[in-house]
Every structure is written in C-alpha cells, then in structure tokens.
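Dear support,

I submitted the protein below through the web form. The confirmation email said the job was done, but the results page showed an empty box. After a refresh the structure appeared. I'm attaching both so you can tell me whether what I see now is the final result or a partial one.
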Amino acid sequence: MNPDLVRLRNQVAKLYLEALGVIRDLMKLLDSGEDGREVLEKELNEKIEVLSISRIELINNILVFIARNQPLGLELVEASNLLYLVYDIYRFGRYAREIFLADKKGVRLSTPGLRDLVEPGLKIAVEAVEKSYKAYFENCTGCVEEVRRLGVESDKLYIKQLEKISANEVINNADAIALLVLRHIERIVDHAERVSVLSTNI
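What the results page shows now:
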C-alpha cells in the first residue's frame, strides 16, 4: 500500500480512538457530581472541537492524496473508505455533544430512574464503537456481526421508550430526555454499523 495512504489510515485510526474516548466519557455523566461537571464539560468540548478541526484537515489530505496519486483498485477503495470514516467520526462527536447537552440543559443523566433508562444504551454505544474500530482497523471479522447485534439492541431500547411515551398523555421530563438520548445513541450505533460494513470492502 502507498506509504502516504498508510499514513492517512493511521491518522484516521488515531482520530477514531479519540472519538471512542469521547463516547466513553459520556459514561461519566452517570456518576459525576455537580463539582465535577464543569471540568467534564470543558474536556468534552475540547475533545469534540479537536474532532471537528481534525476532520477538515483529514478530508483535505485524503482528497489531495487522491488527486495526486489517482489510486486504483484497493487503494482507491481504502481512500474512499477513509473519507466515509472521517464523517462517521465527526458524527460520533456531534451526537456525544447532544447527549451532553441533554444532561446539562435537560435532566441530569445521573438522576435515579433516568440513569436506569440510558445506562444500557450508553454501554451499547461504547461497545459498538469499540467493535467497529476493531472490525476496520484490526480485521476482526466477528466484530461485524457483533456490531449488527448491538444495532438491534439499541433500536429496541429506543422503540421501547418511544412506545412508553406514546402510551401516556402526560410526559415527564426524565422520559423525554431518555427518548432524546436513546435516539442519539441509536444514531451513534448506526454509524458504527456502517464502519463495520466498510471493513468488508477492504
């Protein structure tokens, strides 16, 4: 493989792990007290900003590589995949930010009852992003099916909460926030699924 393409692949892998770190940080919202939230907010905002800036730089670098080298075959597939991955990484960060805002502006995810609703979903999101990384960058063929299974689980959690809300005329704040968070989790897992599928194209 072209050394420049290998370098780009390694850069995308590094950024992917940074996005995974952001998803993992969301778990801290379940236990963090008010004193620790200001620090957590600053850290999350900084990490998400890095994802956003790095995304633009990587897209430009990948496009320059394609223009200069005009790759064919597997190298063209890899370059194209990396563009998709950079977008998925960016979406991981965006959905993580929305979940954090739901905690900050809505109801704390550590609130009894609400925590029970969202914790299983957050664990699924972390595992899905971990497995999708392994599927693409570590050639874990079994991880593709694992991510697909996690996608089904996240869908079930979201639909269950949607049905719960639909069955009640009055919706409490915790249920509304849970639905919002589970929707963002479902989208994170969808992007993880797309990454795992891309791994089968290499």
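Response: this is the final, complete result; the empty box was a page-load delay. The longest helix spans residues 34-69.
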